[in-house]
């Protein structure tokens, strides 16, 4: 169901490749609300890094918001590190006097939390990007391309769609709304299909599968199956233009939420063979504008674009 994907996070590449404009207002709002604590937006490091060398005053303001947020995060992590080091020292003193279950457990928890916190601090301060920095999960933000007044525009959106007019509780009531099944586009998604189309640029996607199904064997009686995560990449390697639906959600007293869902369909044979039953739909480059300017009175055209999809062979491997 594409619970995770490796995305194109640098908006400048959108500009160069697609001639798109960046919605600077929405990017600024996203980073401002996070810095102010208004939102808990989860933003991939690669998306932040795109503003590392600002070219305009507005980009400089965004970088300042990112730096402020990261500084606040570092302070919180350092405070937590101090607490856990004190907890560890207290536990070790207790263990020297007498070995108890409580002190042993406290020592273990503090040791684990210290290692986790040091890793987070190191990650926060790291400047070199890794492949993981461009990976999004459900609830993370990503740049999505839409069409406004005949112009391709890049907006930051959350990967889990909350349809306009629906209550915020839908996020928990319908946690699977990060995907829009092709066979339900005129059902649950009818207010967006034919109206609000977008494109997410993806170089790889990840799926949960059962090991027994992936390996093509039956489980022995009494044995439990194991979940594994597979990474799928197109062969030949290229960025895929994934068809999405998106929405702007508004409510009194609440900040607007831009969010999206990736459209999925039945999987090609090589994906199905791994035991997974859904697959994203990458559209062809020549269909980008037609997809982004749908006609709600002619849904057949949108369906035809989904059918006339980019069809690479998907190689897979166990995700690191």
Brief digest:
This protein is α+β, with helices and mostly antiparallel strands and 320 residues long. The chain contains 10 helices and 13 strands.
Characterise this structure.
- The chain is an alpha+beta fold and 320 residues long.
- It is built from 10 helices and 13 strands.
- Strand 9 and strand 10 form a beta hairpin.
- Helix 2 packs parallel to helix 4.
- It is globular, with a radius of gyration of 22 Å.
What's the quaternary structure here?
A: single chain
Write down how many β-strands occur, each being a DSSP E stretch of 2 or more residues. Answer: 13
Mean pLDDT rating: 93
> Helix and strand succession?
EHEHHHHEEEHEEHEEEHEEHHE
How much helix, percentage-wise, in residues? 25-40%
Q: What's the end-to-end separation, in Å?
A: 19 Å
Largest sheet features: 13 strands, mixed
The coarse silhouette is globular
Backbone CA Rg: 22 Å
| Class inferred from helices and paired strands | alpha+beta
What proportion of the residues form beta strands (DSSP E)? 25-35%
List its traits:
13 strands; 320 residues
Write the layout of secondary structure elements.
Elements: E1 4-7, H1 11-18, E2 21-22, H2 24-35, H3 45-49, H4 57-97, H5 101-125, E3 135-137, E4 141-148, E5 151-159, H6 170-173, E6 179-181, E7 197-210, H7 211-215, E8 227-235, E9 240-249, E10 257-265, H8 269-272, E11 279-280, E12 282-283, H9 288-292, H10 299-307, E13 313-318
Parallel strand pairs: 2-5, 5-10, 6-10
Antiparallel strand pairs: 1-3, 1-7, 4-5, 7-8, 7-9, 8-13, 9-10, 9-12, 10-11
Helix pairs in contact: 2-4, 4-5
């Amino acid at each position: 169901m594409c619970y995770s994907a490796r995305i194109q996070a640098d908006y400048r590449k959108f500009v160069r490749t697609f001639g798109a404009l960046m919605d600077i207002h929405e990017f600024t709002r996203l980073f401002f609300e996070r810095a102010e604590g208004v939102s808990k937006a989860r933003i991939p490091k690669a998306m932040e890094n795109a503003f590392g060398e600002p070219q305009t005053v507005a980009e400089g303001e965004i970088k300042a918001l990112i730096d402020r947020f990261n500084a606040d995060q570092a302070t919180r992590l350092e405070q937590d590190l101090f607490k856990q080091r004190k907890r560890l020292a207290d536990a070790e003193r207790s263990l020297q006097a007498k070995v108890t279950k409580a002190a042993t457990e406290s020592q273990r928890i503090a040791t684990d939390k210290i290692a986790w916190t040091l890793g987070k601090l190191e990650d926060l301060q790291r400047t070199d990007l890794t492949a993981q920095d461009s990976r999004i999960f459900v609830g993370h933000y990503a740049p999505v391309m839409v069409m406004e007044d005949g112009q391709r525009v890049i907006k930051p959106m959350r990967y889990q769609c909350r349809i306009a007019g629906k209550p915020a509780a839908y996020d928990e009531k319908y946690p699977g709304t990060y995907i829009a099944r092709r066979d339900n586009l005129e059902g649950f998604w009818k207010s967006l299909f034919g109206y609000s189309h977008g494109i997410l640029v993806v170089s790889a996607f990840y799926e949960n599968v059962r090991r027994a199904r992936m390996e093509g064997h039956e489980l022995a009686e009494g044995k439990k199956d194991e979940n594994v995560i597979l990474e799928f990449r197109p062969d030949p390697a290229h960025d895929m233009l994934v068809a999405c639906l998106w929405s702007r959600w508004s409510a009194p007293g609440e900040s607007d939420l831009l969010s999206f869902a990736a459209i999925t369909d039945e999987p090609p044979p090589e994906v199905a063979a791994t035991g997974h039953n859904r697959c994203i739909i990458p559209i062809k480059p020549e269909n980008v504008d037609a997809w982004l300017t749908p006609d709600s009175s002619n849904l057949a055209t949108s369906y035809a674009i989904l059918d006339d999809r980019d069809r690479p062979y998907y190689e897979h491997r166990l995700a690191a």
